[in-house]
Amino acid sequence: MGVERTLGRVEADLRDGDVTMARTRLRDLVRSLPRELAARDKLAEVCRLQGDRAEAGRWSYLSDVRDPTEVDAFERACGRDPVRIMGALRWEGSDDAATEVAGQRLREVRQRAEARAGRTLTWTDTGYEVQDWRQDLGLLGCLLAGLVLLALAVVGAVTVVGWVV
Q: What pTM was computed for the model?
């Protein structure tokens, strides 16, 4: 389905009050055509309708006109890490874009991300995962849960052996 046709269907979805379907169509469009700035802008608009400021900031990040509070919400959601921001933008190819503003923003994000990662990065594979304390805490929680289950299994086995003997 072409870009114009999909955008037309999105408009029909919005007229019908089906914001969720509009967002799904736009996400799919941006996934298949990540360099299509009009689709990104429309997705930001739909996210805004749903009150999702971080996602509105994500998809309007390359726009000529964007809401600084939405961009801030998006950057906070990425832990202000430029490598995570770069990956979340879901851009492909070079830093060239249909507008000079978008191209400049892409170059700025890439420069900050490469400085953080200490090496050259591509848009499709940053090859760098940011590990933060929440991920470490999650791993610790899983380890502790496993140990508790093992202890319970041992107690259960000892109890069963005590009944048999």
A: 0.74
